[in-house]
Amino acid sequence: MRNADDTARRAAFRSRLAAFALACALAGGARAAAPASRAVGEPYTFAVLSGVIASADDEPHARRLLDAIARDRSVSFIVYEGNLKGPKEACRDQLYEQRNVLLTTSRVPLVLLPGQFDWAACGTRDAGAYDPVERLDFLRQNVFSEPASPGANPLPLTRESEVARFHPYRENVRWVRDDTVFIGLNAPGPNNRYLTAGGRNGEFEDRVIANAFWIDHAAEYAKRRGARALVIFLEGDPQFERYQRSERFGWLRFNRPRVRDGFREFKRALVKAAAVFRGSIVVVHPSGEPLANGFRIDRPLRDDKGDLVGNLTRIAIAPRARLNQWVRIGVDPAKQPMFNVSVQTVPKHLPQPPALPVVPHDDTPLPEMPEIPAPPTLPDSGASGAEPPGYDEWHGAHDDHYDHRASGATPGQPPGAPLLSSRPDNRGFGQPGPA
Known about the structure:
Blueprint: H1 2-37, E1 44-49, H2 59-70, E2 75-81, H3 93-104, E3 110-113, H4 116-120, H5 132-142, E4 158-159, E5 173-177, E6 180-184, H6 202-225, E7 229-233, H7 264-276, E8 280-286, E9 295-298, E10 312-317, E11 325-331, E12 339-345, H8 391-395, E13 420-423, E14 426-429
Parallel strand pairs: 1-2, 2-3, 6-7, 7-8, 8-10
Antiparallel strand pairs: 1-11, 4-5, 5-6, 9-10, 11-12, 12-14, 13-14
Region (Disordered): 352-435
Organism: Burkholderia oklahomensis
Protein name: FKBP-type peptidyl-prolyl cis-trans isomerases 2
């Protein structure tokens, strides 16, 4: 009986010993696997451009700029944040084709986002009085149709159009590099193309829903991947200082109407994303005002309670010489902060690339409308030649655009902006702030 008890105790001891050894092995394996799953990627950089080409005369300079970027071997990709054409260029099919051919000459993968002059402002007289929504559809079918970026070294892209509900939105994209998730949005200036005239803002209303979904999806995706950062690109200036928080007694404003913030849903989606994804969120967009250093870094977003969103950083870019400068953003996952920003200038000695073949332009005029006979002149009508009421207002419509070319002083940084500066044109950031 005693031998049986001893045998049982020894068996139980061996079982506990084996369980302890297994637990140690699993713990050791977990410790060994953790660094592998969170392996730090190699440092790299990417370039950001916007509004480089305003006329045909700018095309050779744009090619030289792309060539200069490609000579920096650390650059992994380029993001062109909108405006392949200028405000006074007609939104013709052939012009889009010509500029798209120019982009394909880039030796570095290039991700294009649509901008104000690419479609939203195509309804102006200088742009040819096109239907902006029709021009956007043309871009979607001819420029944003492929599952990769244009050029000799395409970058695989995930497009929002892969989601059945948002099939039209081919221009909204996502890609990944190491532990950083990148997305691009169609959100042009000014004011995200919110129309103040009468009628329904159907295009705007549908697009802000698609954009908010893409931000929500990116935050969840980055969280599941265990990413360190989420970077968001757009062409429009969101004007974070205009964030309209929920008003409990907004009706008390009576006769104080306020212009509707076209980026309201965008900012609210960012607040939600910052709560879901606790890593660094970086928003990159062209500035609507001149910046002396060519860029500005700050933390401009607050939630509905007025609390600072500490893990969101904004980079507003505005190089002073748009044809000869580009914004360089370096990423080093092993450092804190992991991002740094600088403005690079094209060397003067850099040769000009050979000219591209010109895509024939369709300059065939539209068919003329049949002439309508003038009404008979009234006996007492004067011969002063005065125009009917409203003529000057209609024909003198101004260009609703802004210029990304920058000069002048940098606005003051808000208190607490996460700036780490080694020199005036190189700043680092990216460390998650307080919740």
